[in-house]
Amino acid sequence: MRFETFVALRYLFALRKQSFISVISLFAVCGVAIGVGALIVVIGVMNGFSTDLRDKILGVNAHILVTSVRGGIKDYREMAEEAKAVPGVTGVTPFVYSEVMLSTRGGVKGVVLRGIDPGTSDTVLSLSKDMVGGSVANLDANGETPGIIIGSELAKRLGLTEGSEVNLLSPSGRSTSAGFTPKVSRFVVAGVFRTGMFEYDSSLGYVTIPAARALLGFKGDVVSGLEISVDDVYNVDHISKLLREKIGSFTVYVRNWQEMNANLFAALQLEKSAMFIILAMIVLVGSFSIVTTLVMLVIQKTKDIAVLMSIGADGASVRRIFMMQGTFIGLAGTVIGYLIGVPVSLLLKKYQFIKLPSNVYPVDYLPVRLEALDLALIGAAAFMLCFLATIYPARRAAALNPSDALRYE
Questions:
Q1: What CA dihedral angle connects 72, 77, 80 and 84, to 10 degrees?
Q2: How far apart are CA 304 and CA 233, in angstroms?
Q3: Are strands 107-116 and 89-104 parallel, antiparallel or unpaired?
Q4: Tens digit of pLDDT for each residue in 43-87?
Q5: Which of 69, 131, 228, 330 has its Cα between 20 and 30 A from that of 123?
Q6: What's the rounded Cα separation, in Å, for the pair 26 and 15?
Q7: What's the pTM?
Q8: 264-275: per-residue pLDDT in tens?
């Protein structure tokens, strides 16, 4: 063991004899520990929230959308084959999109209607995994009456179950002598899904593409666009560029999930950075206590420092002694913070005992996701703040003149 380390540890364990200094040291350790623990839990929640929100959005929506600037795509089958040939594309499915009114005896509700192809939708959407009643295959299994799959919140609000009949009112009606008459079609509930996001579960409905065309009055074999999934959700910019080059048409518009949700995820990232800075202030308060501890210890150990310097210890050795002592305090607080923050985060992740109102937040529980990089950054930031707090007291101790300290001894 080096000389400086030995003396630093002796001073550290001898603090229990100086009750006032030991109390300040305890506050320093607690401040660092609470700050580190709070940072781990909060950053874990922010990561979990962002990841869970992204997965839910990408489960209901595709990674990339190809739509037409003219309102519809006729040659979508050839376009889908071209899109499948692009490297990184894992699935392609056509869709029809519109907003309609859903009416039952229980009330009326505006619904976002999406026409899908049950045969290819599983390659892009997570609808089959989100089903809590019925199945996607039931959309084609209701005879003359077409089927519709609705969200759980919408079903709860209107009192609908599998097999219930509903009416869909399309804005594409017709003008008669009595005025404008909306087109009304009868559907039967073929299934109920639940994504955990209130916005989707309360206002989204799925039907087959032919049923959607008939309701909306589309002429011919036309769809609103193509939904595309990719193997790497963070490489969508490059794949979108390849799709534009492959399709090579000025009448289509290619957008990816990052472009369509840029403001939301930018706000989440900004909130995460702000929370990191705010909670790091708790660690900073703990580091101030380290400064106080070391300054008072330098004053109390003035004679000891003078003796060490008189028998050969130079200023650099004395400086390292006090820097090590403050670093040990910061390291102890950081380790305790990890021992607090990581178990609490894992308990939150496993048991989800904190519930959120689903009509206020996009998720109904508190998600947690711990990432190695964030844990390393938290530890490094806490350790660096504690280390910087030792510089001033250590320099003051190293600048002490032995003759002045021992003159009256």
A1: 180
A2: 62
A3: antiparallel
A4: 999 898 888 888 888 888 899 999 888 778 888 889 999 999 999
A5: 69
A6: 10
A7: 0.77
A8: 788 878 888 888
